[in-house]
Amino acid sequence: MQEFLELLGNVVPSLLQGTVVTLQLAAVSLALGVAIGLPAGLGRVYGPRWLQRVIGVYITVFQGTPLLIQLFMVYYGLPDVGITFSRFAAAYLTLGLNSGAYQAEYLRGALQSVGEGQMTAARAIGMSKGQAIRSIILPQALRLVLPTWSNEAIAMLKYTAVVFLIAVPDLMGQAKIMAAKYFAPIAIYMIVAVFYLVLVGIAYLILRQVERRAQIPGLTGEVE
Amino acid sequence: MTTDPILRLENVHKSFGETHVLKGVSLTIQPRDVVVLVGPSGTGKSTLLRCINLLSPPTQGKIWLEEQEITAPGVNQDKVRQRIGMVFQDFNLFTHLTALGNVMVGLTRVRKMNKKEAYDLAMLELDRVGLVDRADHYPAQLSGGQKQRVAIARALGMDPHVMLFDEPTSALDPELTGEVLEVMQQLGQEGMTMMVVSHEMGFARRVASRIVFMEGGYIVEEGPPDQMFDAPRNERTREFLNKISSFEDNGQGE
Ligand SMILES: Nc1ncnc2c1ncn2[C@@H]1O[C@H](COP(=O)(O)OP(=O)(O)OP(=O)(O)O)[C@@H](O)[C@H]1O
Ligand SMILES: [Mg+2]
């Protein structure tokens, strides 16, 4: 017990540093994912044919291949064609592009499940297609997609762990360093698992609140 | 007194691929007319309304709204739709907006009013349909009849010159149709030009200035209610109106 507490005292400062990096990675990647996924989802549904195809290919590639390979391609592959990224830039970019593909696909589903009648009614009062999408369809689709995006956000907290493989010092990266330094991999990975659990738990609680706020009264049961 | 027609259809055709739905419909509607359009299911009544407000433009033929030919190339269709209100069978209220929001959104986004103006006018329109006290309710919190009245208020907010109704009471429980028909009757009395697809024959007798009977993509016969109900020229008109009138007498009407 004494020993464990001592270990804890030794590793926690580094793990906290790693936690900050992990949170940063998750936040920036998700923001990037929204910035990519939102227009990509819209373009996939409402864009011209060629654009729908291009976005379809992007989504298929990023959903259909392992995240780790995507990361290696960006960090080790792209320099071969003269594009070089720092570790962090490569991590943000890969996670952002990956998340963007998923978010686009989820948004597509949400956009398509907003009833045809909503668009018809919006056009009938003289809205252009763009206005109708902006003021009527998208606000409803975003509410529909929110629970799925929350799950994506939570998953992202854990996906970020792959970046230690390109030596980004995130929570996982710090765990690896500490495990080697103190020769106690099992204990340390268990501590790290608890860290992830706490992060995910907090994220879950926050996102549930956001979802509740966004609920439409009467539609999914009363909000008190 | 002769007036210029508010709506004029000339030989309107509509096909969906191979399916020829409207096969040459010509119709003239004067200001303050209340035209009730009847006909068997699948005849093209909804299609005709959607042609008129260009939600699905005719494949052939011409339509004039007041002095403008709205089927001409280069016409701003969004502007045209602003002048033609439409009310749907299944309401199509914007589910994420309150009753007030449903009426306001067109005022702020399309008519570019500021919040205050839009709010005032929206409340006025909700008052017209008797729903001021439901202004902050969401569609899911309203009864069918209330939803349809909000939908009418939403359309009225755009200050339409003509209102199209596509079976506005068909999706309602029988005890809720009255409140919607009342609002429509009041609109008619205020002088709103209306074209109503409906099989509410009581309403048609009371409110319609003209009844149009459509079948198989054609207008078979049209005339004032008295003539259409009591002395139709066409055998099919008589059969059809008899049938739906007797349904209604038995309390089974839509
Ligand atoms: N978008 C479309 N694509 C293909 N066919 C269509 C489309 N819209 C309508 N139709 C066809 O046009 C015909 C007329 O349909 P419409 O809805 O106008 O009839 P209606 O007179 O309104 O009937 P109801 O009383 O059942 O509402 C139907 O055969 C229908 O299948
Ligand atoms: Mg119809």
What does the average pLDDT of chain A come to? 92
**Gap between N and C termini of chain B, in Å?**
37 Å
Number of strands of chain B: 10
Helix segment tally of chain A:
8
- Given the C-alpha coordinates, what overall shape of chain B results? globular
Which class of chain B in CATH terms?
Answer: Alpha Beta
What kind of assembly state do the chains in view correspond to?
A: heterodimer
Binned, the helix content of chain A reads over 70%
Radius of gyration of chain B: 18 Å
CATH topology of chain A: MetI-like fold
Tally the helices of chain B. Answer: 9
The pair of chains with the biggest contact is: A-B, 22 and 30 residues
Sequence of secondary-structure elements of chain B: EEEHEEHEHHHEHEHEEHH
Largest sheet of chain B: 6 strands, mixed
Average pLDDT figure of chain B: 94
What does this structure look like?
Chain A contains 8 helices and no strands. Chain A has helices spanning 2-46, 49-64, 67-77, 87-113, 116-124, 129-159, 171-182, 185-214. The radius of gyration of chain A is 21 Å and the shape is flat. Chain B is of the alpha/beta class and 254 residues long. Chain B has one domain (7-252): Rossmann fold (3-Layer(aba) Sandwich), CATH 3.40.50.300. Helices cover 38% and strands 24% of the residues of chain B. Chain B has helices at residues 45-52, 77-82, 99-109, 115-128, 144-157, 174-189, 201-207, 225-230, 235-249, and strands at 7-16, 19-29, 34-38, 60-65, 68-69, 84-87, 162-166, 193-197, 210-215, 218-223. Chain B has a 6-stranded mixed beta sheet with strand order 6-7-8-3-9-10, with helices on both faces. A 4-stranded antiparallel beta sheet of chain B has the order 2-1-4-5, with helices on one face. In chain B, helix 3 (99-109) crosses helix 4 (115-128) and helix 5 (144-157) packs parallel to helix 6. The longest helix of chain B is centred in the last third of the chain and has 16 residues, at 174-189. Chain A binds chain B through residues 115, 117-118, 120-128, 131, 135-136, 139-140, 143, 216-219, and chain B through 53, 55, 78-79, 81-82, 84-86, 88, 90, 92-96, 105-106, 109-110, 137-141, 151, 154-155, 157-158.
